[in-house]
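[Backbone geometry]
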Amino acid sequence: MTIPESIKKFITWIQGFDHRLLRNEDDVKQKLIFPMFHYLCYPDKSHREYPLKTSKSGKYGKNPEIAQIYYTTDDIDEQNTDTSIIFVGTIEPQKTELNDAIEQAKFYSNHFKTLFFIVSNGYEIKVFKRLHYHREELLFEINIDALKNNDIASEFYNQLNFDLVKNIDKNTATNFIYTKYNLIEKFIRRYPDLQDVLEKSDFEPSIMREGYRLVVVKPKVAIACNLPKAFGEGNCEIEFSSIILRGLKIYLNHQDILGQLMTGLHSQPDWGCRRFFKQLDKNNFEVYLGQTTLILSELEAVDLCLCIDGVCQEYKNLIIEFENALETWNFELVKFSESRGFILFSVRQELWDLMQQFANEFDYTKGKSEWHLFHRKDISIRVSRGIRDHTFLLPKIDRDLYLLPNNQINIIYELNDVNLQSIEISKFTLWQQDIGVRGTWTARYTKQWLLEKYIPKVINYYSGKSQLSEAELLAKITNYTSDRVFIKEIEHIRDLAPYLRDIQSWLHIDVENIVASLLKPYYQAYTNLVRNTDSSIIGIDYIIGNLRKVEWKNTQEGNPSNSTDWTNLTFKHAMDCLDEQVARINNCEYEISLKADLITRTFIWIIENGKISFSQAQLNAAKQALLALWEQSRFEMRHVYPNR
């Protein structure tokens, strides 16, 4: 068979190439990569160089390296992720270990959405085909000496030359994997005997819990999770039993668990409540887990949901349990300079300096009085007698690690590893016994102690030495307090409004559907609560406008209510609409968050502007329904959305 002239030129070039002349990474690029792609017939202007930046995790791109991206076009304006075809990463000739470079190339290949990625140190060459839904396929793992073989060089050219690669349809390449998966799934369903054979490889369902280690196993999916200790971070690993995904392990860190998995618990995969699911058709789902995208069958998707529910519910319960035990919910959570804690209140720098000075003077090693209970370290204050640590206080610092001069200093209730050590090493069910006045102080008690005991003591002690009077020092305290009435103690209906506003804000930014079971008692209780509102309420246009949008969304979904005359703008009509929404949601599995947002806005307006007659039973039902929904919104706004 006659060898085409283009392949002959490629073979002649590679056989004359001497890798021993390469001295550095730039040589690999200039003397191997550029000529190689020239002889593979890539136009000179079809490639661009990109500096590799550090990824979000910090794992890749730590060195200021340059990568090459090849495109189907030499028009710079059209060079984008739609036209990208090959990512090339190079390393120094002296480096013989390519694994880190391969991981880096894989990461950036996914980012640029290329069809292939190549890694080389000038002698070894590894070529991978990027498969969007599954692990990449290794096409070539060769060295320069092997590539000089005519047959291997011809095969290399035939799979990577420009004319071939530029005509590969990315969508077709992606859909091929999905289509193949779908055909396999249908084939298995068609032959029950084959399905029985395959099911023998399914996992054995189980739930195992040992301390902070939780493993939840269903036939198709298994999740092993290290649960969070105190306010530390957990992680998990997901495995699948199917023949297609067997051996694949997906690692998710704390941020992935909270930001991706935590919403939509106890919902079906086709309800649209989980942000990492996308339904492709009746029997298949696209699933995003960390940096990995998969196609799962209906059975696999259901088992994945069940495993996630078991793991995330316990993960969530632990976080809530720690917040409750340390009484931190009412304080702003902050993370900075590798520290984390809660803002208790603020003082001017002059007062903080006196607080530090007092702590230094009354170090527990310097005396035995009731006030010798400090151990100062750097800029923090450690309340401790050397045996028992009560609390750690830290001033909020700027990016350069210096106190803001002549400014307000936030006093942080720090979650220090030393302080939490007793929690982490104690038995799982006994850690709370250490919390109290004689053990680990809660955030609420720490704030109370500072304001009522420590700061007055400091001011009194230095009253004759400070240039500022006692009144001036006390005036420099900014106390963050909430004027809200606790939900269970509410007796006036308007005290419900701040909590409803929290829920509305949560619903407004939530793009996923909401499990209807959360909203059914809420819709019912608040519709009953506002039922006897004076019809002269202002803003009836606003109320009707919100409810009209809800009904319009219902019509879009194919769930039209009775024909509505929107010209009859009365409060009675608004109540009829609310009653219809109560009846509708009682027959739904999930609710679009926009509808719940609009209905909540309606409740807020009526409560704040209407004259409402209500019974104690109606108010109590409203408080009970509010509590569960508000606690859900509080958790997600505090722990889920910041990690997205």
About this structure: Residues 215 and 224 are 4 Å apart (CA to CA). The longest helix spans residues 298-325. The first strand starts at residue 47 and ends at 51.
